[in-house]
Amino acid sequence: MSGAQPQLDAIAVGTTATRVVSGHSRIPWRFLGSRAAFYLFTLWAAITINFFLPRMMKGDAVSQYLARNRNVTPEAADALRALLGLDTDKSLVEQYLDYWAHLLRGDLGVSLLHGLRPVTEVISQALPWTVGLVGFATIVSFAIGTIGGGIIGWRRGSKLDVFVPITTFLGTIPYFWLGLLAIAAFSVNLRWFPIGKAYGVGMRPEWTFEFIGQVIHHGTLPAVTIVIASLGGWMLGMRNMMLTVLDEDYITVAQAKGLPNRRVLWGYAARNAVLPQIQSFALSIGFIVGGTIVMEMVFSYPGIGKLLLDATNAKDYALMQGVFLVITISVLVANVLADFAYAFLDPRTRQTEA
Predict the structure, then answer these.
(1) What pLDDT shows up at residue 268?
(2) Residue 97 Cα distances to 42, 49, 91, 102, 354, angstroms
(3) Cα dist. 187→42, 141, 170, 345 in Å?
(4) Domains (ranges, CATH) in the chain?
(5) Does the keyword field hold Mitochondrion (predicted)?
């Protein structure tokens, strides 16, 4: 009959109280709109705090600069305050509006620590080093820890369980101590790797095989130490989630249907166990831009973390604000991508939110 309703497969529909329409996937506009509004508000709040926080500190960047340079005239000091948006002739509201106007034009001010160079230029030179090193190490540690934790959880009670306490113990060692031990063992004694820096003395950054080889050689030791320090958390988290998922009824049904163990492991158990890992991975990806300050300090690596540390010590507020803003935006973007990835892998999320 033409008016009869099509029969729906109960397994395809699932157990959620959500209406399924064949052939068309309903776009979760409410889910997308609520998330967009939340992150826009968070971005505004972060930028506002980024504006007011340096102005709540004792003194300002110009005062710190004048303390190091006694030969600056009062007129030059006033010009510096106006250049940095610290003009006392303007009210705090006017300074706030000027800050937004400059920000929307991509102007983050100038850095006193780097000879009045634009903050965007200073950050753009340090950012690739941090993203390249910390980003690569984070992705490698997440992949090894998640896959390894899934296999260990699947084979619970086997000899593979010994990797969990070992990696967890290595993760509890303070990073600076782990880095110093690595330098003492592999740089000082064995002389396999350089002690620090991103490339050799006398080298110029350029796209040549020699320079790329230098970068890989100098970055191997800090990258390996980051992987070792963060591997335990990923492995332990995935292993524990696998133990929880393996007790679910759908795993028992899949095994009872005679599905191959590999399909049950990766298609059913690991796919659901990895969901909480995605949120943590998104935060890690976001904080990659912030770098690992201790790592960059131990290995004298010219990344964002060391840049932020130097700016803090020099009270270079414009540079500090620029770095904080880049970190905030990177974390928000990573969370947005994690929300969509989470909703894609688990439709119940967007159904509940919508």
Answers:
(1) 84
(2) 18, 14, 10, 9, 36
(3) 44, 23, 20, 44
(4) 63-107 (no CATH), 127-353 (1.10.3720.10)
(5) no
